[in-house]
Write a structure and sequence with these properties.
By secondary structure, the protein is mainly α. It is built from 16 helices and two strands. A two-stranded antiparallel sheet has the order 1-2.
């Protein structure tokens, strides 16, 4: 008897209620005695904690996915992405980095063959894949993109940055859309509006994620600003490694931010063509918007500490967008 996500979602709802009750009969209650259900619930809650710590924007945006089953499935998806993203920063040896990614590739293969792997995120992902019949190609693309990133010294062009963002951030949105009941529709020249908006928002998210991580990359002597822009504005790797912010570096940052803003605006132009239930998956747009506004306010200096803060204003914007059926 395998636990269903619907059953898991009901238990999670009770467990979350129990967490809120400091006293009373919920305090030490275990909502379910069935061991397989109980462990599955723990896996999903573990995924949520992982996302809350490492990807706050998507954790907070997911609060407005009112279907518990769908919300925790999206959390499992995001936790899987975090597992992949952390490999490069946690492991220093390229061969071990590659073998970790290869292991996740094998895990995906096993999941689609109906085999369970004993790992909290893998077990949660197993439930989600089989409950929602998720497209395997997007999940594989996440791994392939990370593998290519292992060998990348510096992106060649801003187009390379956009492609990477499309293959990672946009793929995650396509998968979230599937969980919410929206499979991608492509026929001849037609692409459904939700997929188009997800593509644009994913690219905007990917570029801003790169800009947000700029201070961290500089400390590690890593360069993710496109080579063609560095040549155009006569910025060397040594200039970047020094951690100074010259007008030329700001010009590169401005160009990338402007590109992200263009994609964000393109996504938002499609709002009225997207079913209201589908717009919920795109609520993280407010976090992209907030970063770009603050970056402009600070004259495109990516090293200003305030840029890493997520303020109350952004959370209010997400809430407002939800209730006004925008993103």
């Amino acid at each position: 008897h395998h636990p269903t996500i619907q059953g898991i979602a009901m238990i999670i709802g009770k467990r979350l209620l129990a967490r809120k009750c400091k006293t009373g009969r919920f305090k030490n209650a275990t909502p379910c005695s069935n061991r397989s259900y109980s462990s599955a619930v723990n896996h999903f809650l573990e995924c949520e904690d992982k996302v809350k710590k490492a990807d706050y924007a998507h954790w907070y945006s997911s609060i407005y996915v009112k279907n518990t089953k769908a919300r925790f499935s999206i959390m499992a998806l995001r936790a899987f992405n975090i597992e992949l993203a952390m490999i490069k920063s946690v492991v220093s040896q390229p061969t071990i980095q590659q073998s970790r990614l290869s292991w996740w590739r094998q895990v995906l293969e096993a999941i689609y063959n109906g085999e369970k792997i004993h790992h909290p995120v893998a077990e949660a992902l197993y439930q989600v894949v089989h409950e929602f019949d998720l497209s395997q190609k997007w999940l594989i693309l996440l791994i392939t993109s990370r593998e290519q990133d292992l060998h990348l010294r510096q992106p060649g062009t801003i187009q390379d940055v956009e492609n990477y963002a499309e293959n990672t951030a946009s793929s995650l949105l396509y998968l979230s859309n599937e969980i919410l009941g929206f499979k991608q529709v492509i026929k001849d020249d037609y692409v459904d509006p939700l997929s188009k908006a997800s593509s644009h928002l994913g690219v905007a998210t990917g570029i801003t994620t790169l800009l947000r991580a700029y201070p961290h990359h500089i400390k590690l002597k890593e360069v993710y600003l496109p080579k063609d822009l560095c040549i155009k504005y006569n910025v060397s790797q040594e200039d970047l490694h020094r951690g100074e912010t010259s007008d030329d570096i700001k010009q590169i940052i401005y160009t990338m931010a402007d590109q992200a803003k263009g994609h964000l605006e393109a996504a938002r132009k499609l709002t009225n063509e997207i079913p209201p239930q589908g717009r919920v998956a795109l609520l993280s747009a407010a976090f992209v918007d907030d970063y770009l506004i603050k970056l402009e306010k600070h004259d495109f200096n990516p090293l200003v500490p305030e840029l890493s803060n997520i303020g109350v204003k952004t959370r209010i914007a997400v809430t407002k967008n939800y209730y006004t059926k925008k993103f």
